[in-house]
Structures are given as structure tokens and as C-alpha cells.
Design goal:
This protein is an all-alpha fold. It contains 5 helices and no strands.
Length: 298
């Protein structure tokens, strides 16, 4: 009977102190699972976007020989930057699944771990290029400084110091122009005298030359070549100068190129399907044989 009394007292005494314990218990039981579920859902969506970005990389560079470790590092780096931000630095150690397997403690295993870090860095570069990180952060409103004029401050003027008055600059005296002894004659050339008169020790004033406009020679136009203003041009784009329509420029890659350490497939290996996450190539560099047909037993 004593233990029942102790249990009842343990259940009633906390309620006497207020409802804070009951409130905190309810919040922990409802709010915390909801928060964890929201974070897991966000990480799942980012992982899905990372797989879509990896498919774009495979379609953009189908001749690159990516490894499974490079693919895993790409997905982890893409999600890590969008979820946690940072300055795009690499992790200190690879995930636990890579340090608990025996095959990674060899010379070839270390090369595979290097592929993981290369993929991690490349995934971060692709995530930075998307510009989605700014939409996964909480905006913070900072106090703005007043835009009015600065406060008026009265500063004491420095005491005058005894110094010599500033010396005024002397202007050069004008040089008299010598006059000609001959009296001026009233002729029709007196209007242009200012331009043609030569003073002692001076050169004549040059007269501006008018440009000579000459007609351009007519160039023969080949039949079938569009000229400006002659009519519609194939494709609806006017061609300046009447020349042929220039060929379209090749489309530039939409994604940054993978690291140079990722090799390309040999020329004798056919291009694998871009729908696969990894390029499926046999060790002998041959096309996988088709599956054998299965005949039903009679």
C-alpha cells in the first residue's frame, strides 16, 4: 500500500507547481517530431534534385568514365551545400561507409576515395551555379541607418598664424603686333586677308579641306543571294551586307566541366546510355551481350 501512495504523490506533486511541466511535455511530444519530419522531408527533396542534376551531367558529358564513388560524392556535395551552406570546402574525412570496408585500405581504394572528394567538390560547384542556396535561408532584417543629412557639428577654427601674404602671380605683358608699312588696298581679297596674311615669324593659317564624296562602285550580286531590303530572308533574320546566312553557333555546355582527373572512355568503347547513373562498360571494353531468349518448356 505504501508504494501506491508514493506513486500517487509523484504524479500529483508536479501538478501543484504549475502547468509548465505538462506544457513542455506536450510540446516535446508534438513539436519535436514535426520538426524532425520537416528536416527529413527537405533533405529528401534536395537528394532528389541532386539526382536530377547528376542525370544532366551524364547527358552533358556521356564520354566521361565516372565511378560510383564520384557519383556518391557528387550527391553528398550537392546536398551539403544547399542544406548547410558554407564556403565550399571539402570534409576532413569521407563518410563512415568508406572507412569500414577493407577494399578502401589499398592503393586502388585510395584512388577511389580521391574520386569521392573530386565528386564532392564538383557537386558543390553545380549547387553554387544553381543559385538555390539563397532560398533555403531565413532572411534577417537589419536596422537601417538614417538617410538624412549628417548632424551639424561646430568645430573651433584654428588660431590665425603670422605668415607672409601670398604673392600674386604676374601676368605676361601682351606682345605688340607689328604693322605693315604698306597701306591696305580695298580689293576682293580683303575678306580672306585674315586667313592668308602672314605675320613675321608665323606660319600661314591652314584652311580646312572639304571631303570629296565619290560614288562607290557597284558590286555584282550573284543570283539567289539576298540583299538588304530585297525581301524576306530565310529564317526571318535580316542579313547585313547582303551576304549568305551564317551558320548557327554551337550550343555551349550548360554545366561546368568535370575535373580533369576524370578520364574519358577509350575511342573503341561505344558511348554508353545516358539514362544509366554510371557508364556500364565491361572490363574487356566490349558491348554487353544481349540476354538469351527463354523458351517455354514443352
Amino acid at each position: 500500500m505504501r508504494w501506491k501512495t508514493v506513486a500517487l504523490a509523484g504524479a500529483v506533486v508536479p501538478t501543484l507547481g504549475g502547468c509548465s511541466i505538462l506544457e513542455n511535455t506536450t510540446r516535446n511530444a508534438i513539436n519535436e517530431p514535426h520538426l524532425v519530419t520537416s528536416l527529413l522531408s527537405l533533405e529528401y527533396d534536395l537528394r532528389k534534385q541532386a539526382k536530377e542534376a547528376w542525370q544532366q551531367v551524364r547527358a552533358e558529358y556521356p564520354r566521361r568514365a565516372f565511378t560510383a564513388e564520384f557519383r556518391d560524392g557528387f550527391l553528398d556535395g550537392y546536398v551539403d551545400y544547399l542544406d548547410r551552406g558554407g564556403n565550399g570546402s571539402l570534409p576532413a574525412v569521407p563518410p563512415a561507409k568508406y572507412i569500414r570496408q577493407k577494399k578502401y585500405f589499398t592503393e586502388e581504394g585510395h584512388c577511389l576515395l580521391k574520386d569521392y572528394f573530386l565528386g564532392f567538390k564538383y557537386g558543390q560547384e553545380i549547387a553554387i551555379a544553381t543559385g538555390k542556396r539563397q532560398f533555403l535561408t531565413v532572411p534577417v532584417l537589419l536596422p537601417q541607418e538614417p538617410t538624412g543629412p549628417p548632424a551639424f557639428q561646430v568645430a573651433a577654427s584654428p588660431p590665425p598664424t603670422a605668415s607672409a601674404p601670398p604673392r600674386q602671380a604676374e601676368l605676361p605683358r601682351p606682345r605688340p603686333i607689328p604693322k605693315s608699312d604698306a597701306p591696305p588696298t580695298k580689293t576682293t581679297e580683303s575678306k580672306d586677308r585674315s586667313a592668308t596674311e602672314q605675320l613675321p615669324g608665323r606660319l600661314p593659317v591652314p584652311q580646312p579641306l572639304l571631303p570629296v564624296v565619290r560614288p562607290l562602285p557597284e558590286t555584282p550580286v550573284a543570283p539567289g543571294v539576298p540583299t538588304p531590303g530585297s525581301g524576306p530572308v530565310p529564317g526571318g533574320v535580316p542579313v547585313p551586307g547582303g551576304g549568305p546566312v551564317p551558320p548557327a553557333a554551337p550550343s555551349e555546355p550548360k554545366l561546368p566541366p568535370p575535373p580533369v582527373e576524370v578520364p574519358e572512355l577509350p575511342p573503341e568503347v561505344p558511348t554508353p546510355s545516358v539514362l544509366d547513373e554510371l557508364p556500364v562498360v565491361l572490363p574487356s571494353h566490349t558491348i554487353p551481350p544481349p540476354p538469351l531468349p527463354v523458351h517455354p518448356e514443352k
